[in-house]
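Fold this: Amidinotransferase
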Amino acid sequence: MTVIAPELAESRSAKEATARHYLMCPPEYFAVEYSINPWMDPSAPVDAELAMAQWTELKNTYERLGHAVELVDAQPGLPDMVFAANSGTVIDGRVLGARFRAPERAAEAEHFRRWFTDHGYRDLVMPERINEAEGDFAWTGGFLLAGHGFRTDPAAHSEAQEQLGVPVVSLSLRDPNYYHLDTALFVLEKGPEAKVAYYPEAFSAGSRRVLERLFPDAVIADAADAACLGLNGVSDGRNVVLPAEATGLAKSLTDRGYAVHHVDIAELRKSGGGPKCCTLEIHS
């Protein structure tokens, strides 16, 4: 009798992609004009045309994979509006908007609120607490993983549970380089047996124990993959979109049966963003 190791058995199992609904904002006014995270250096040159080309390829990748992509208009004076993931959390038609910690980004919240309202989302609440949306919230299909430590207020976690009507698991971030949950963890598969990838060193000791308990078979990223924002990935259950430099993580995912699609987001990374930062998922 041949015994197959659990991890090998998983890699041989078929992964199922599901069509997703994304909201994005083109980097029409992208620039690094201020510094609100360790990645941002206003003295470093930024190529706006290259940023647009990289963003366009990310959008095209989603569409080639069969996903619906809607766009919100970029606004002058808001160079980080391209990072749409920070603009709201949508689960089962309910929308919890955003409230930014940095005053430089505060005006973004109203533009995205108007988009949701104009597109028929009536069950919409704007938060009282600082809440940077999918930057710090990751929906597993059964519960919401919620980060805090640098941006989102811990009190916003209970507000999200109340407004969205889903259970919330709080996680503490400890490294300022991974200032949002979506820079240190992403959901590979949603559902009762949700699967994630994450970088343990971004989390407090207690939060690491929580993640180990919830996701004993998680894909664990190393420091090199985390350092290129490799954990800022996007998955549809089978296809995983990753920054081009995240080669070690890509191999781990391929070994488990996922199809990896690399994109170059180096110019957008100058503002501390990657594929997921550019992508708000509307969870239906």
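Residues 75 and 221 are 35 Å apart (CA to CA). The chain has one domain: 18-283.
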